[in-house]
Design a protein that fits this description.
Layout (H helix, E strand, L loop, with lengths): L16 E2 L1 H10 L1 H11 L6 H13 L7 E2 L18 H7 L2 H16 L25 E5 L4 H11 L3 H11 L5 H10 L5 H9 L18 E5 L10 H18 L19 H6 L12 H4 L18 H12 L6 E4 L13 E8 L2 E7 L3 E8 L7 E6 L10 E7 L2 E6 L3 E8 L8 E2 L2 E2 L2 E2 L2 E2 L12 E7 L2 E6 L7 E5 L6 E2 L3 H7 L14 E13 L6 E11 L6 E7 L7 E7 L12 E7 L5 E7 L3 E8 L3 E4 L2 E6 L5 E7 L4 E2 L4
Parallel strand pairs: 5-9, 19-21
Antiparallel strand pairs: 1-2, 3-4, 6-7, 7-8, 8-9, 10-11, 11-16, 12-13, 12-17, 14-15, 17-18, 18-19, 19-20, 21-22, 22-23, 23-24, 25-26, 26-29, 27-28, 27-30, 30-31
Helix pairs in contact: 1-5, 2-3, 2-5, 7-8, 7-9
């Protein structure tokens, strides 16, 4: 998840004064809306139950002490709301300074929950579990919505706190962009423009924000423990607690994991669920099964590692998977369910990796990685990755662990050799990583690019079924790299594929942590430059996701001798450059060595004509267009395919 710096904003004596009675009246009248607002802005990592309690706590702490100054300017002062459907009640609410004040306090404290804990003067109690309200013996969470609500929640989770706040102020509060900027600035957001750009990446499904999925005031309740005993006298309770502590110290003299590790307490007894969590029921595949199987996927991987017989570790991994405790760090690739297994999963690995005990499981749809520190009873992590339909190269490697910028992989049983290859140096020799029981040596992963992109290390695997090139994108399963026309791609590990990917490798940064399954690079056109300085290449890259939606498509332009390709156009969730629609059209303003400017455009081979209008006018027959232009000119492109269909530009 992206992070957005939020700076504290001191109050100003010149701002309007809001009486506590006015703020209290607004809080009482609009309490459900304010709690919903806090719930949507709070970090999703808190978990649904804790977000509910924290949202109520933030709303209840929004009142000023005595008389206080507000940093809110009424929304209508900044222009019309984004939706014309705002009725009289909405206008009255936004013009109420009391409501503006408490809304700002809720946004400010919810954003503070996304900041790292610190000791500075602006450290807030909101970053800790809420003192009030509390509900003992019950787990409270909103009612579940449909698939659309779940998808929206996952998309909002990928934004920073400020990005979520911008989206919610647009959709729930119906504020204009200028009003959103003022509210975010008053709340201490350093870059409201970046927050709005983040919000643009999420589809405008604002009606879903009013659904029960995001209503912390309409809750479901479940017991935290159905096996509660009768209440005893205070002395008996104290004695029982003392006995429990002493017993734990006897069993675990140095401190450590209990039978269920970092799992939350069990709240139900179900024979099928308990069978799925029994280490003895784990599916274990024989080492030679893949040789005779018609399938080449994770289902034929054998169980490996030096702790496959450690029932205590396996039990903890299964228990945490089924019910992760609040201290467990849980992550999932977009579109991946994080619930417990439906039946006994398959064991792929159990062993020590660097300073952690690691267990990798597979349930037919997901890869699940559980890790716990060797020398601590805290800090367990649980990672989910969707892998349904993976086969061959897509099922050839899983991340075992990351340490100091290096990555170790567990590879498929048919892999014979693993090597490291820098995509920016296609002519260089691949460096052997070695394989020990299917585990690679440490590979320096591609780091988060903060400046010039100088290297992009990829994993090259060779085995009984060819050689494949995979790239780590910050997830459990590396993405497969291919080249060629959509619908008939081929592996990028050959000399030609490496040359194709060399100028494009750094663009993989744009699809990091997006649940990417594979990325294909297609050189769809070559264009002679109008000044005679050589031939430029047009390449389209399409990143397919495991969930089958939201593919990212980039059209890139590379001049002769250029080390990197420049992104000319970008689009998400479009069929262009894919197997269903193997067509693409993009253009770029290009400056010749003599200083002249041109509009260059290219379509795929099946493009019959291209027309430019607007700031640059011109037309051509065929799939290439070059027209003289001026610096900064804005043009609209339109293409026609050979079958007569219109072809719009990628955007």
């Amino acid at each position: 998840m992206q992070s957005q710096h939020v700076a504290p904003r001191p109050s100003s004596s010149s701002e309007p004064v809001v009486d506590v009675e006015l703020a209290e009246a607004a809080l009482v009248e609009h309490y459900p809306r304010l709690v919903r607002l806090a719930y949507l802005v709070l970090p999703p990592g808190l978990g649904r139950g804790r977000r509910v309690l924290t949202a109520h706590a933030l709303a209840q702490r929004a009142l000023p002490r005595g008389r206080s100054s507000t940093a809110v300017i009424p929304a209508q002062a900044g222009g019309p709301a984004r939706s014309s459907a705002v009725g009289t009640s909405g206008e009255a609410r936004d013009s109420d300074p009391g409501y503006g004040y408490v809304r700002l306090q809720v946004i400010r404290t919810a954003l503070a929950a996304d900041r790292p804990r610190g000791r500075g003067p602006w450290h807030r109690r909101v970053q800790l579990p809420p003192l009030l309200p509390q509900v003992w013996g019950l787990r409270l969470f909103p009612r579940s919505g449909g698939a659309d609500e779940l998808a929206l929640d996952q998309r909002l989770a990928s934004l920073s706190g400020a990005g979520r706040a911008a989206y919610v102020l647009r959709g729930l509060e119906k504020l204009s962009d200028s009003a959103v900027r003022r509210v975010l600035t008053a709340a201490g957001v350093a870059d409201p423009g970046d927050a709005l750009r983040q919000a643009e990446r999420v589809p405008a499904q604002y009606a879903l924000l009013d659904s029960p999925e995001f209503d912390p005031c309409s809750l479901q309740a479940r017991p935290t423990d159905l096996m509660r005993r009768r209440q005893h006298a205070k002395a008996a309770l104290a004695a029982a607690a003392a006995l429990a502590v002493c017993g734990a110290l006897v069993v675990l003299p140095g401190g450590g994991w209990g039978p269920d590790g970092a799992a939350a307490p069990a709240y139900a007894r179900n024979p099928s669920a308990e069978a799925a969590l029994d280490p003895a029921g784990l599916v274990r595949i024989t080492p030679a099964a893949w040789r005779t199987s018609t399938r080449l996927d994770f289902s034929v991987w054998p169980a490996r590692g030096d702790r496959t017989g450690d029932t205590g570790l396996l039990r903890r991994a299964l228990a945490v998977w089924a019910r992760p405790g609040e201290a467990v760090r849980v992550s999932a690739t977009p579109g991946t369910a994080s619930g417990g297994p439906a039946g006994p999963p398959q064991l792929l690995y159990a062993g020590d990796v660097d300073n952690a005990h690691v267990v990798i499981l597979y349930d037919g749809l997901r890869i699940v990685r559980y890790a716990e520190p060797k020398d601590s009873a805290a800090g367990a992590a649980l990672d989910f990755a969707r892998v349904d339909g993976a086969t061959g190269a897509e099922a050839s490697a899983v991340v075992l662990g990351r340490s100091d910028g290096n990555v170790r992989y567990l590879t498929a049983p048919w892999v014979r050799k693993a090597a490291e290859r820098d995509l920016l140096k296609p002519a260089s020799r691949a460096l052997d990583l070695g394989l020990t029981d299917g585990i690679t040596g440490p590979l320096a992963g591609p780091v988060q690019q903060t400046g010039a992109c100088t290297a992009w290390n990829a994993l090259q695997l060779s085995g009984d079924f060819g050689t494949h090139l995979l790239s780590d994108l910050g997830e459990l399963v590396p993405a497969r790299l291919t080249t060629g026309r959509p619908g008939a791609p081929h592996e990028a590990a050959g000399a030609a594929g490496l040359r194709d990917w060399a100028p494009l490798a750094c663009s993989l940064e744009a699809v990091r942590a997006q649940g990417v399954r594979s990325v294909n690079a297609w050189s769809y056109a070559e264009q002679p430059l109008p000044d005679g300085s050589g031939t430029a290449a047009w390449v389209c890259t399409r990143a397919e996701t495991w969930r089958g939606e939201d593919p990212l498509v980039l059209a890139q332009f590379r001049t002769p001798g250029g080390k990197y390709a420049a992104v000319a156009a970008k689009a998400q969730d479009v069929p262009a450059c894919g197997a269903r629609e193997p067509h693409v059209l993009a253009g770029v303003l290009w400056k010749a060595q003599a200083g002249d400017w041109y509009l260059l455009a290219a379509g795929s081979r099946s493009t019959a004509s291209i027309t430019a209008s607007g700031g640059v006018r011109g037309a051509s027959q065929g799939h290439l267009l070059a027209v003289a232009a001026s610096q900064g000119a804005q043009a609209t492109l339109k293409g026609t395919l050979e079958d007569g269909r219109a072809l719009g530009p990628l955007r």
